[in-house]
Batch of 3 targets.
Target 1
Amino acid sequence: MINSAIASSSASAPVSAAATVKNAAAESQDRFLKLLVTQMRNQDPLNPLDNAQVTSQMAQLSTVSGIDKLNSTLEALSSSMIAAQSMQAASMIGHVVMVPGNGIDLANSKGMAAVDLAQPADSVSVAISDASGNVVRHLQLGSQSSGSVPFQWDGLNDAGQPLADGSYTFSASSQLGGVKSDAGALAYGVVNSVMQGPQGATLYVAGLGEISLTAVKQIL
């Protein structure tokens, strides 16, 4: 019985919305026709409206009605796309994603992150820093193609000593033909929840905070 009530309510909602739009258009046309009839009744007999004026006003009504219908269609399409985006985002909860960020978590002497290259590079280097901002490890990734370049850190510092598990940060640099090129930082994190906002779905990624769905580079 509850299911029937829900189904009935869901089915009636679109009809009501459509009826509202239809009624608004009908009211607009009715007001226009009343004004046109009033104008024709009160026109100057010596200078009556000609057919071109009437036709022009009718064309204006048709244009306004068409714009109203187009706006309603676009609003419905936008709502549908936002709903679909939310469902897609919800399926990502519990998954690891690659997003812009310079954090790298060390757990069980293993840390993972990635470098985002706008163009190929002859050499790519990474500098990992501790919570105090001190650089503890330099990594050389060599020559790389453009795109996302994942790398793994073994938890050792430059002296070969193991470091404590925890949160670290990193920066990346690259060179092409002896000239420094763009190198962005990408971090991995687990999607804990999804929030729906006016601009679409937003992911809450552990350790990274709120991330736009469009910013996700990879889903693992």
Target 2
Amino acid sequence: MWEYTDKVKEHFINPRNVGEIEMPDGVGEVGSLSCGDALKLTIKVGEDQRIVDAKFQTFGCASAIASSSALTEMVIGKTVQEAQEITNEQIAEFLGGLPKEKMHCSVMGQEALEKAIACYLGEPEKIPEGNLVCECFGVTDVQIERALTEHSLKTVEEITNYIKAGGGCGKCHEKIEEIIASVYGTKTDKPPQPKVLTNIQKIKLIEETLEREIKPALKQDGGDIQLVDVDGDRVLVKLIGTCATCAMSQVTLKDYVESKLKELVAQTIVVEEVAA
């Protein structure tokens, strides 16, 4: 399971400044429902160029909500110029840190703030520079290069954690590898490596396998299964209905559920049952 700080949990359970400002001076919208994260930030600026109010609406995980909530607290009271200097690392630090797999949530906050300020200043919305690499999340080669150099990233998985590129279909992994090699001057003439699923891909594939392959079979016998969390290769689930009380539940869990996930997702997967 993700290791969240107390401050992340607090901002998730009791988010600040939720909603939308009427007649805002600046609006920043990033992400989309189709990619799993979306954020709308609205700001109100006073006559002294100081942000007097900020509100957010978000669709996403605990980290996305907490990052958005933290961002509003960070910008209120700052001048527009001061707010322009806020980075995603500062958002994460404000929360006491974020899991590396969730850093893209803080990046989303920074991007929404940049768009809201640009809207306030009357600047046209910037079209991402460079050539499109990740079609699933609309990320260009220039954005990937910037993430690599600014955050000292070295792998496809780290890129996905920060800007989500490569976290969808996976077709862009080879191109991202080439960009990494170009930035760090490493050789690319190595033999093809087995495809490694990113965390986002793994979770998506686990969910699809449970829905398509495993749940229908369990429901035939009056049972069901619920995905609780994914922690690396550990898949945490809860058995429901007759599966929960069956004397053979552990056999079902290991010989069927785990075997099916090993076959269709990754051989390294281990399935564990959590308490009801």
Target 3
Amino acid sequence: MWEYTDKVMEHFLHPRNVGEVENPDGVANVGSMACGDALKLTIKVDDQGRIADAKFKTFGCASAIASASALTEMIKGMTVDEAAKITNQDIADFLGGLPKEKIHCSVMGREALEKAIASYKGIPSTESAEKIVCECFGVTETEIERVVRENNLKTVEEVTNYTKAGGGCGNCHEAIMDIINRVRATAKPVEKPKLTNLQKIRMIEETIEREIRPSLRQDGGDLELVDVVGNKVLVATRGACAACALSHLTLKDFVQAKLRELVWPELEVEEVSK
């Protein structure tokens, strides 16, 4: 059984914005009933270019429902251009993290949003011209290249977690690995400048305050920075987080991931009592 965060369960049990927008400006259908996950997203855009309404219908697991529900909540009120910048990781972070085997659900949400925006702008679909790599789940070469590049994926298993590609007969594993090697060979490594310990602590404090605590507080939780020792970030959970049986997942999948992304890639978050 998958271990879900409280926020995933909340959006699964009480999904927001279920249904279809009347006279939508953008429509997207992604996935398929045959592969086990399907999502329809409809959006309404006002005269200022903001998404005034968004609704979804989905067939899938708890993660698929929660990801679609979260996505609609995230994009309402955004301009179309702002919404276009949302990544699958943003959706997962909004939910406090997803099991690695279920991250493809947030990818499906991102793809639906991208296609709904294209529909609104009148951009024709190029799906028919794209090369299918995984016949079992209908995953294209372009989709695989994108998730590998955006999420720094290294293995076929990771690609399967993000797209389902390779999760059926396995005949496409070699082709997937070729794509991984090609993308990684052309990717330019990004080197972060070295930080002094004081700079690192300040950036950790700012990231916790700006990017992490607001999300935790939405569910009645909180986090306190206790100390920074080398690359170890010592924190104490507060409120609902302190009583949550899945707080260790929140710390690793959300807090640690966000600090590694925005501060330093080698940071490790450790919970302490205080």
